[in-house]
Amino acid sequence: MKHHRLDDMTGGWFLGDFDPCAARSVDAEVGLKRYAAGACEAKHFHKVATELTLVVSGTVRMFGQVWQAGDIITAEPGEATGFEALTDAVTVVVKTPSVPSDKYLA
């Protein structure tokens, strides 16, 4: 048995090909992200990975659209988007495959 704490992970990322992580994988990255209302992430894209964002709670803006709890947004390689938490929000983000250097500002 192993035990980890999300607070010990970098930015909520707990599975992937990086350190620290709860489980190492080259196949995927998974992170639980918590945002305060007004938090933003710069517009970026991935050349290799597909990124899926599940809005668990709150309201967010991606791809110029507003999304809420239950929405799953898929960003294919080459599709650029920023992120804005319109309310306090929680997301689960899955990237496949795990390529830590595959993030480019748009």
The helix-strand sequence is EEEEEEEEEEE
Query: For the largest beta sheet, what order do the strands appear in spatially?
Result: 2-1-3-10-5-8
Helix/strand-derived category reads mainly beta
What coarse outline follows from CA principal-axis ratios? globular
Low-confidence stretches: none
**Largest sheet descriptor:** 6 strands, mixed
Describe the structure.
The chain has 106 residues and is mainly β. Helix content is 0%, strand content 51%. It contains no helices and eleven strands. It has strands at 13-16, 23-24, 29-35, 40-45, 50-57, 59-62, 65-68, 72-75, 81-85, 89-96, 104-105. The strands form two sheets. A six-stranded mixed β-sheet has the order 2-1-3-10-5-8, with no helix packed on it. A hairpin with a 2-residue loop joins strand 6 (59-62) and strand 7. It is globular. 19% of the residues are buried.
Q: What order do the helices and strands come in, and which of them pair?
A:
Elements: E1 13-16, E2 23-24, E3 29-35, E4 40-45, E5 50-57, E6 59-62, E7 65-68, E8 72-75, E9 81-85, E10 89-96, E11 104-105
Parallel strand pairs: 1-2
Antiparallel strand pairs: 1-3, 3-10, 4-9, 4-11, 5-8, 5-10, 6-7, 6-9
Summarize, please.
The protein has strands at residues 13-16, 23-24, 29-35, 40-45, 50-57, 59-62, 65-68, 72-75, 81-85, 89-96, 104-105. The protein has 106 residues and is mainly β. A hairpin with a 2-residue loop joins strand 6 (59-62) and strand 7.
What labels would you give this structure?
five-stranded antiparallel β-sheet; mainly beta; 106 residues; six-stranded mixed β-sheet; 11 strands; globular
